[in-house]
Write a structure and sequence with these properties.
Distance between the termini: 32 Å
CATH class: Mainly Beta
Strand content: over 45%
Shape: globular
Largest sheet: 12 strands, antiparallel, barrel
Number of strands: 14
Structural class: mainly beta
Radius of gyration: 20 Å
Length: 280
Amino acid sequence: MKNFYLLGLLLISTAWLKAQDSTETIAPDRPGFGDAVSIVPHKNLQVETGFWYEEDKTTRLTNQGIGLNSTLLRYGLGDKVELRFDYNLWQNRTSSSAEPNDAEQVETGFFPIRFGMKANLIENKAWIPTVTFIGMLGLPQIATDVFQPAYLSPDLQLSFANPVNDWLTICYNLGASWDGDNPNPENYYALSTEFSFSDKIGAYLQGHGAFQRTSLGGGKASTTHQTFAEAGVMYYPKANIQVDLSGGIRASEYNGEWSYFGAERSYYFLTAGLSWRFPR
């Protein structure tokens, strides 16, 4: 693990030394649940990396998830297509107040490494949004045993964006992802407003949700539906570099009936990241 962090620091420091200004401001797929519509320029390499912390707490059980490092690599094949590769080094920490003498359970490892592409389908014109398609495929063979699913885990998404004026853009996403264990996909959606206050500062507000059916056997099935709210800020020290900070909460959950969380149950997350684009 120590060697992994040293390698990460070396990569980040090298990127800061090599990165140069570009006339086009970087538009990463982070932060925020939904991905942006932008395509990395032809022959440019873009690196988006970050840290994630989440806590899901009930009166008896606390589950902490720590994204020690998540990194997305994007390379522009042309004006309308890019290649994508990502990985996620994750740690789960679970503790129970009902059994205080039990040791905390800790699981650390990589989720399936994913490969994919992103393609521009429609350009914005008047009320017609910009539309891009994103397809990713997770490989169960390239994952830590504790996070290894039984099958491939595809993720298919459509991203839309309508610029309102020079400082406001409306973005929305629709997608479906398979975890490699449940044959039914998790269907997700997002709606966000993105603000550009200056060449250096931006922000966003977003609501998103996901629902999934799970077969229980005997012709029976259950459906879960969760909704979330989040917000974040972005800083651009150079046109090809973004630093971001964001966070959010789970607003509600449906599992037979709707639940709205308070003191007895809560979920929140915080994330910070760095993105930079290497010129061709």
